[in-house]
C-alpha cells in the first residue's frame, strides 16, 4: 500500500509538472511585442550610443482584454556597462546574460532588459548564441518570454525555446553599428534564460584614423544586407542572373540592377569588372572606377565576390522572344530577302551577271556588268 501511494504521488508530480511548466492562461499572457515596444521607448535613451545594458521590473494592469506594461518605477534605474576591457590583441569581449544566469538561477517574472553593444568602427563584431532557455506555451507553442535582436544589417528577429532549436545562427556586424538584444519576460513559466557572446575584433584593413574604416564599414554593411532576417553569413562567390533588358548602374561604389521600375539588386562594392566581348573585344575586362557613373544593359551573369563584382555580358539570351514590333520588322526583312532571291533567280535564266556586277550597274571596280 505504501509503495502504491508513493507511486501515485510521484506520478501526480510528473503530471503536475507537465501541465504547469509551460502553461500560461490567456488572461495572464502579456503581448511581448507590445512589451518590447513600450519598454524600448521608455528606456533606450539611457543607453546612448555606447555598449550598455539595463534590466528593470515592470508592472502590468488589465485594460480591456490586454495586460498593459508600466515602467513608471524603472525611470530611476541607470544603465550599466558590461563589456570587458581591451584584450592584448585589441579585441573586446561582451557577455550578455539574463538576470541571475551566472548564479544558475531563473530570471524573475515581469522582467525587461535591453542589452546594447557598439563595437569601435575599426572593429568587426561577431555575435553567437551560447545558451537559450525561454518558455513556449504547451497549448499553442507561443513564446511566453522572448529575446528580440536587431542590428545595422539584421531586421528584428524573435527567439524563444531551447538552445538546440531556438538559438540563432552566428553572424557578423560592422563596427559602429548598434547591436541590440531586448528581453521581454512575461509572468508565467520562468526558465534559465540566455547567454550571448559578442566579440569586437580589430580589422587590419582600417587605417588613416578611421577614414578607410568608414568606407569599408559602409560597403560591408550593404553587402550583407541580402541575408535578410535570418542573419546568415553571405557566402562568396555567388552568381546572379541579370535578365534581358535589366539596367546595371554603377555609381559611387553602389551597383544597382533594375528591370523597369523594380530594383533587383543593390550591392556595395569598391570594384566592378565587366566583360563584353562585343563592346570591348574577346576576353577584355573593363574595370569601372568606384567614383564612376556607368550603365550597362543586361542580359548576363554577375558573380559577386567579397571584394569585387564581375559581370559577364552574354548578349541576347537564346530563349528571348522578340516583341511584336521586332517580329514585324523581322518578317518584313525575310519577305524582302525572298523577293530579292526570286528576282535574282529569274534574272539568272536570261543570262549571268558579269564578274564586276549585275548588267547595267556599276560594279565595285568601276566597270559595268556583262551578260554571259
From TrEMBL:
Keywords assigned by UniProt, alphabetized: Signal
Annotated signal sequence range: 1-15
Signal found in the keyword field: yes
Biased composition (Low complexity): 362-372
Region described as Disordered: 344-372
Protein name, entry field: CUB domain-containing protein
Source organism of this protein record: Amphimedon queenslandica (Sponge)
Gene: 109587346
Amino acid at each position: 500500500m505504501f509503495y502504491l501511494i508513493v507511486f501515485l504521488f510521484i506520478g501526480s508530480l510528473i503530471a503536475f509538472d507537465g501541465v504547469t511548466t509551460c502553461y500560461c492562461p490567456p488572461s495572464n499572457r502579456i503581448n511581448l511585442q507590445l512589451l518590447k515596444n513600450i519598454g524600448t521607448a521608455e528606456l533606450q535613451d539611457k543607453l546612448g550610443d555606447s555598449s550598455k545594458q539595463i534590466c528593470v521590473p515592470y508592472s502590468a494592469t488589465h485594460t480591456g482584454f490586454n495586460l498593459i506594461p508600466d515602467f513608471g518605477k524603472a525611470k530611476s534605474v541607470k544603465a550599466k556597462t558590461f563589456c570587458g576591457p581591451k584584450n592584448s590583441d585589441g579585441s573586446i569581449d561582451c557577455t550578455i546574460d539574463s538576470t541571475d544566469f551566472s548564479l544558475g538561477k531563473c530570471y524573475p517574472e515581469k522582467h525587461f532588459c535591453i542589452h546594447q553593444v557598439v563595437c569601435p568602427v575599426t572593429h568587426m563584431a561577431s555575435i553567437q548564441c551560447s545558451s537559450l532557455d525561454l518558455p513556449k506555451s504547451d497549448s499553442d507553442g507561443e513564446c511566453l518570454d522572448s529575446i528580440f535582436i536587431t542590428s545595422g544589417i539584421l531586421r528584428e528577429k524573435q527567439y524563444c525555446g531551447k538552445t538546440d532549436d531556438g538559438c540563432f545562427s552566428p553572424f557578423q556586424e560592422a563596427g559602429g553599428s548598434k547591436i541590440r538584444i531586448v528581453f521581454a519576460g512575461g509572468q508565467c513559466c520562468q526558465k534559465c534564460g540566455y547567454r550571448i557572446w559578442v566579440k569586437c575584433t580589430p580589422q587590419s584593413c582600417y587605417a588613416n584614423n578611421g577614414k578607410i574604416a568608414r568606407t569599408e564599414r559602409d560597403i560591408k554593411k550593404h553587402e550583407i544586407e541580402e541575408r535578410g532576417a535570418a542573419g546568415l553569413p553571405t557566402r562568396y562567390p555567388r552568381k546572379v542572373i541579370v535578365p534581358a533588358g535589366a539596367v546595371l548602374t554603377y555609381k559611387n561604389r553602389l551597383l544597382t540592377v533594375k528591370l523597369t521600375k523594380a530594383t533587383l539588386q543593390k550591392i556595395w562594392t569598391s570594384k566592378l569588372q565587366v566583360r563584353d566581348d562585343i563592346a570591348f573585344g574577346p576576353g577584355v575586362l573593363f574595370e569601372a572606377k568606384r567614383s564612376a557613373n556607368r550603365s550597362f544593359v543586361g542580359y548576363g551573369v554577375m558573380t559577386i565576390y567579397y571584394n569585387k563584382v564581375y559581370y559577364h555580358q552574354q548578349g541576347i539570351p537564346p530563349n528571348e522572344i522578340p516583341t511584336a514590333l521586332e517580329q514585324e520588322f523581322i518578317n518584313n526583312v525575310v519577305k524582302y530577302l525572298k523577293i530579292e532571291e526570286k528576282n535574282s533567280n529569274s534574272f539568272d535564266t536570261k543570262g549571268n551577271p558579269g564578274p564586276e556586277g549585275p548588267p547595267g550597274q556599276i560594279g565595285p571596280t568601276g566597270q559595268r556588268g556583262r551578260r554571259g
